[in-house]
From TrEMBL, chains A, B:
Matches recorded under InterPro entries: DNA-bd_HTH_TetR-type_CS, Homeodomain-like_sf, HTH-type_TetR-like_transc_reg, HTH_TetR, Tet_transcr_reg_TetR-rel_C_sf
Highest taxon above the source species: Bacteria
PANTHER family, per database record: HTH-TYPE TRANSCRIPTIONAL REGULATOR BETI, HTH-TYPE TRANSCRIPTIONAL REGULATOR RUTR
Annotated HTH tetR-type domain residues: 11-71
PROSITE patterns linked to this entry: HTH_TETR_1, HTH_TETR_2
Residue range(s) of DNA binding per entry: 34-53
Keyword Transcription: yes
Entry-linked Pfam families: TetR_N
The entry's keywords: DNA-binding, Repressor, Transcription, Transcription regulation
UniProt keyword annotation of Transcription present: yes
Protein name: Transcriptional regulator, TetR family
Length: 203, 203
DNA sequence: TAAGCTAGTAATTAATTACTTACTATCGGG
DNA sequence: CCCGATAGTAAGTAATTAATTACTAGCTTA
């Protein structure tokens, strides 16, 4: 059962470590992801991890960068899938939920980093991620308002906060349920209520 | 500056420890709240903490019970403040946000416990708390629907999820902002959008 | 083939963790 | 006024943590 000591490039291992962290975060608190657990998940010794990252902080930073690229990428792509603002919103919502379902560790890592005191490089990166996210969100919401797809009295700032909160609520519910099963269906319902709040009162 | 060794009853210290944990959780991740930090916050030695709680887990449990009593108490009270379902919802929302603003550590502790794997006594308690919360929420939402205050086509389950998510979104935003300043005002706006989603399309 | 770089291991480091133990000071009641 | 109970301290414990060490093995290339 002993592994015959596979050698891989540092680049490969770096990517592997990031994925291992995401996988570990999916089923345990980011706070107790140790370098030993990461190594064990890759069939490596603990010391080997430090051949590819100088410090643990660097690992978290790499994970944050991965999330930034992939989540923002998916959101961007979704926002370009249609010209109708409300359809864009739905696509973005689905993309985000899909991402969270595929990588349940990601939202936890984000939340965990944000509640750390002070500001590390990781935290700054996460903040930038969320600011960018909120930016495109506000843009789409403003479009919807200008194009009369949303209510004239809609306040876009709280609407963006509620959008993000809706996703967090679903993530939390999935943590209660103990898994991501059925989240996509629940997301459908939640987005329906949200959308109703966006379009406002109509005839 | 040396403290003259104040003696307090164990009951008093237990309550003090719970408050210390809540205060510490307000400005750092629950994961790195150590018994040493708790003791330091109370001007006590680390060993003294274990005079009043047999284990650290017992401390978390006591904190969970405190949150359960106080948060659910505030919510319950708010739900009784009116006979109109929508006014009840607003009161519950404000009560929850007020609680989160007064004890910013509380939502973090809840979230942190939920993402722990397996099920501890603490986690079970938190789950019970949230189930109870959701129960009264669903009750009020159903009332609103039956009394035609909410849209006939409203699905109460996602509506409850979105309600909780709305609060989480505000908590997250406050973590980004680095404080609870201005949350109450932001809450106003978010609840407005949420409410619009609940009442649905009207003439 | 020999040299040099790289990715691996195993063992060890200092620091930190929850928790314990032995002892001491203080309080309240007979 | 003393005495038992209790709340405190100081100094430990074993376990775990990130990071470092000395050494080994494999790949490429001159």
């Amino acid at each position: 059962m002993e592994s015959p000591r596979i050698r891989r490039s540092s680049e490969f291992r770096q990517a592997e470590i990031v994925q291992a962290v995401l996988a570990l975060a999916a089923e345990s608190s980011p706070a107790d992801i140790t370098t030993a657990r990461i190594a064990a998940a890759m069939n490596l010794t603990q010391g080997a991890v430090f051949r590819h990252f100088p410090t643990k902080e660097a690992i978290w930073l790499a994970v944050a960068e991965w999330i930034e690229e992939n989540l923002l990428g998916a959101i961007e792509e979704a926002s370009l899938s249609s010209s109708e603002p409300l359809a864009q919103l739905r696509a973005m919502f689905c993309a985000h939920i899909g991402f969270a379902a595929a990588y349940p560790g990601a939202p936890r890592l984000i939340f965990h980093e944000l509640q750390q005191p002070g500001d590390s490089a990781v935290k700054r990166r996460i903040r930038a991620l969320l600011a960018s996210y909120r930016g495109t969100l506000l843009q789409v919401l403003k479009c919807a308002k200008d194009g009369r797809a949303a209510g004239r009295e809609l306040d876009v700032e709280p609407a963006a906060t509620l959008f993000i909160g809706a996703i967090q609520g679903l993530v939390m519910q999935s943590m209660l349920a103990g898994g991501m099963r059925g989240v996509e269906e629940a997301a459908e319902g939640v987005f329906g209520v949200y959308l109703s709040g966006i379009v406002g009162r109509r005839t």
